[in-house]
């Protein structure tokens, strides 16, 4: 087998934004966000990644993958290879834009649903050692989490150095796939998650050639 470089934007969108293989995105979201039991995502709608301006002259944006679950929660999944100037501001802009365009004229604010951002970064972005981090809007003194509708998650690939033999859980197996797929020739043994197995199969470039 010859797997594509998942960090390539075309390959990334082909795999995670695949309308016919939604189990891939569902598995990835559940693993990264640590969703279990009744909180697990069981269905997603792949949304248009083009966020068009609502007023003339405003900035349009193109996301890698955008989706919505049954509860109406929206998910943005972005692959970022280089640390471009203004990246942190772009993350907030993408999320705020997705959140603010949920409502139409006459609808009430209580109808707004959370927007969850997941950024997969091929560079070091934060000071901590953890490859996976979550960022919330909290009270600076009490830590109270009252403003819950914007949620930012980052996977920093350079901080993840586990080998195949060291992988212990599904999120580690997903990050290993994204970081190392292009250097692998076989699907790692012991995979029991259908979404991740499907992602490996979709990443096999021999399969791509057969579909041309």
Outline the secondary-structure elements.
Elements: H1 9-16, H2 22-32, E1 44-46, E2 50-51, E3 61-62, E4 65-69, E5 74-80, H3 87-100, E6 115-121, E7 132-137, E8 147-156, H4 170-180, H5 194-203, H6 205-211
Parallel strand pairs: 5-6, 6-8
Antiparallel strand pairs: 1-4, 2-3, 4-5, 7-8
What do these coordinates show?
The protein has 212 residues and is an alpha/beta fold. It has one domain. It is 29% helix and 20% strand. The protein is built from six helices and eight strands. The protein has a six-stranded mixed sheet, sandwiched between helices. Strands 2-3 form a two-stranded antiparallel sheet. Strand 4 and strand 5 (74-80) form a beta hairpin. Helix 2 (22-32) packs across helix 5. The protein starts with 8 loop residues before the first helix and ends with a helix.
Key descriptive features of the protein:
29% helix, two-stranded antiparallel ribbon, globular, 6 helices, 6-stranded mixed sheet, 8 strands, 212 residues, alpha/beta
């Amino acid at each position: 087998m010859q797997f594509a470089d998942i960090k390539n934007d075309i390959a990334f969108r082909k795999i995670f934004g695949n309308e016919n293989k939604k189990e891939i995105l569902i598995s990835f979201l559940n693993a990264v966000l640590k969703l279990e039991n009744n909180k697990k995502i069981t269905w997603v709608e792949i949304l248009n990644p083009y966020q068009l301006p609502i007023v003339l002259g405003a900035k349009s944006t193109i996301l890698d993958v955008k989706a919505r679950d049954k509860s109406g929660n929206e998910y943005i999944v972005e692959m970022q290879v280089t640390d471009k100037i203004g990246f942190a501001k772009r993350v907030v802009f993408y999320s705020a834009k997705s959140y603010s365009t949920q409502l139409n004229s006459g609808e009430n604010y209580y109808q707004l649903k959370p927007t969850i951002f997941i950024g997969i970064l091929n560079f070091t972005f934060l000071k901590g050692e953890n490859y996976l981090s979550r960022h919330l809007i909290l009270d600076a003194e009490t830590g109270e989490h009252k403003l819950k509708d914007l949620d930012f998650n980052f996977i920093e690939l350079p901080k993840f150095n586990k080998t195949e033999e060291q992988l212990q859980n599904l999120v580690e197996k997903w990050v290993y796939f994204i970081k190392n797929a292009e250097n692998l020739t076989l699907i790692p043994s012991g995979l029991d998650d259908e979404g991740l197995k499907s992602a490996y199969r979709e990443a096999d470039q021999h399969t791509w050639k057969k579909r041309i």
